[in-house]
Design a protein that fits this description.
about 280 residues, alpha/beta, Leucine-rich repeat, LRR (right-handed beta-alpha superhelix), about 30% helix, elongated
Length: about 280
């Protein structure tokens, strides 16, 4: 297997940031271009050190999940002169807030990014707006904002109205409105459905967003869904009226997987979906 497609992790005896840096400086990366540092408790101070390591310059992918990284660490990451070749950056399960995302979005060092994962952090509408306005993220094809419950319809509207995100093929907005009302959830779905730019989407995750029948109808009647291969609507508030709209949609012809578990769908509704979309429907 080539170095460009294999994630490498430091040897098992290496745990501290000092040991990681020493390993990289000693040529530990070899020809690897993808570095997995998930769960090393690196924190902001460690990121500030890591960002100065010249050996990172060949990386195209960096996984920093579950490291207790906050806004200061993201600032150091965004300023590093050695990460300008990154095409994939995974920052899930950290302590990143709006200030960190604003800094990240403004960094010209991230102009090569194609995959950005900010799931399970502490970001809100301001972050979504910053991402939507950033000219440095125009190459993104995958954006994961799952479980950032500070993002509401204002942030989603900003993302949906952004020409900078027109290349997205995967968008994860799941569990942003987990405890909202169906009116809020429907407004959320309508913002996505009315986007003139999200027409390249093949994978869309809106699970746990309080979407009801009105939101399902908006999605079913939207050209945004015309390329979708996978649509995740688990744990919403969709009933048989919404199911009927999805089953009758003229835009969902490419759908291979539809996830509907946790909705208020009757047996008749399930059969309707399976008749339209086949066994790819997961509804119970």
């Amino acid at each position: 297997m080539s170095g460009s497609s294999v994630w490498i992790t430091p040897p098992s005896h290496i745990r501290t940031i000092a040991e990681i840096v020493e390993w990289i400086n000693a040529g530990g990366l070899g020809s690897a271009q993808l570095l997995d540092l998930e769960g090393y408790a690196i924190s902001d101070g460690g990121i500030q050190v890591l960002g100065t390591v010249r050996g990172l310059a060949t990386l195209t992918g960096l996984n920093l999940s579950s490291n207790g990284i906050g806004d200061d660490g993201i600032g150091a990451l965004a300023e590093s002169p050695y990460l300008s070749n990154l095409t994939k950056l995974i920052l899930t399960l950290n302590q990143i807030g709006d200030a960190g995302v604003i800094t990240l979005a403004a960094s010209p060092l991230l102009r090569c990014l194609r995959h950005l994962d900010l799931s399970s952090n502490h970001i809100g509408d301001v972050s979504a707006q910053a991402l939507s306005r950033s000219p440095n993220l125009v190459r993104l094809v995958s954006l994961d904002l799952y479980w950032n419950d500070g993002i509401g319809d204002i942030g989603v509207q900003a993302l949906a109205a952004s020409p900078n995100l027109a290349q997205l093929s995967m968008l994860n907005l799941g569990r942003l409105l987990e405890f909202a009302s169906s009116a809020e959830g429907d407004k959320f779905a309508e913002a996505v459905a009315s986007s003139p730019y999200l027409t390249e989407l093949t994978h869309l995750n809106l699970m746990g967003d309080a979407i009801g029948d009105q939101g399902a109808r908006a999605l079913a009647s939207s050209p945004v869904c015309s390329r979708l291969v996978e649509l995740d609507l688990r744990w919403n508030l969709i009933g048989d009226d919404g199911v009927h709209a999805l089953a009758a949609s003229r835009y969902l012809n490419n759908l291979a997987v539809l996830q509907m578990q946790g909705n208020s769908v009757s047996h008749k509704g399930e059969e309707m979906l399976k008749q339209r979309f086949g066994l790819s429907v997961m509804s119970s």
